[in-house]
Write a structure and sequence with these properties.
about 30% helix, 2 domains, alpha/beta, 4-stranded antiparallel beta sheet, 7-stranded mixed beta sheet
Length: about 300
């Protein structure tokens, strides 16, 4: 079997970035990255804390964004690209889609240049395993290597859940992480003081990555358990906190099945919702008996903290 992956680069107007990325995420649950230079100067000051910006960056087009994703041979790139172009057109998004063949080895390493240490909320510092931070400013360090599983903490959907979890976790919290990806949410919850975490994902690579990331923080069963498979087949019991950082369609589909796993006084946190899908998700949550307690938003992405109605 060929080990060549297909690199896909989608160029869209800046105003369409979030909608196009939401569509692209339907194809690649293991993530994508976006080149968006619209707020380059502000980002350099507020995030990187620098005033001097490289001339090459300053020359970048501020009106358009580039969305990069990678398709494995098993994804059948021709079908995936047909789906991508159809959905972009159906949503009125003008785009240019370019593909290149890259080796799996290149994809496994090239993205690392975009992942740097970052602070989350009031307590966490997410740090790639290949980076070091001398001054943690008293924050709890979460070392992580997501490999090809989604979840670095840099994407708004993950950041929103991490920030929301800080507000509800206690030392008695038993957590269920639905679609765990790299395991970042479960590991963060335990480092924030949660009693236990059960992470589940249908993707074998994500499960392997989540286990390895837990071991880096000294987390193993029974306090931290990762299982591969379907939620209903692999999980039993009830939990104080259930988190699902997936996409709007999956939240709508899965929430009725998730409800029995949430304790009567428990919390259900959902993220990965683009703002244009808010009404649909809210309606679906209410229909299966959840009341929205808090709403978090960042750059057009939404996260809801819910309880039993």
């Amino acid at each position: 079997m060929s080990n060549e992956w297909t690199e896909v680069c989608i160029t869209v107007d800046g105003k369409d970035t979030d909608r196009a990325a939401d569509i692209a995420n339907m194809l690649v649950p293991y993530g994508l990255y976006i080149e968006d230079y619209s707020d380059l100067e502000q980002g350099a000051r507020e995030i990187a804390h620098i005033d001097l910006i490289d001339e090459e960056l300053l020359a970048k087009d501020r009106t358009r964004s580039l969305i990069h994703l990678y398709l494995s041979p098993e994804d059948i790139p021709s079908e995936s690209l047909a789906f991508l172009r159809e959905r972009l057109t159906a949503n009125g998004i003008q785009s240019e889609v370019v593909t290149n063949a890259v080796s799996e080895e290149d994809w496994a390493n090239n993205w690392k240049q975009y992942f740097k240490p970052l602070t989350i909320g009031d307590k966490l510092l997410i740090c790639p395993t290949w980076e070091t931070v001398e001054d943690t400013e008293g924050r709890t360090v979460l070392p992580i290597d997501p490999g090809m599983a989604f979840g670095t903490g840099g994407h708004e959907t993950t950041r929103l859940v991490l920030e929301a979890m800080e507000t509800v976790i206690t030392d008695d919290t038993a957590l269920l992480d639905v679609g765990c990806g790299s395991g970042i949410l479960s590991i963060a919850a335990l480092l924030l003081g949660a009693k236990s975490a059960l992470a589940v994902d249908i993707d074998a690579l994500a499960v392997k990555t989540a286990i390895e990331n837990g071991e880096r923080s000294g987390l193993t069963p029974p306090r931290y358990t990762v299982v591969e498979g379907d939620l209903l087949d692999k999980v039993s019991g009830t939990f104080d906190l259930v988190v699902a950082n997936i996409v709007a369609d999956a939240i709508i589909l899965l929430s009725p099945a998730v409800k029995p796993f949430v304790k009567a006084d428990g919390v259900y946190i959902v993220s990965g919702i683009i703002d244009t899908r808010e009404a649909e998700v809210v309606e679906a949550l209410k229909a299966c008996g959840f009341a929205i307690e808090s709403r978090f938003e960042q750059r057009g992405w939404l996260c809801f903290v819910c309880r039993h109605a």
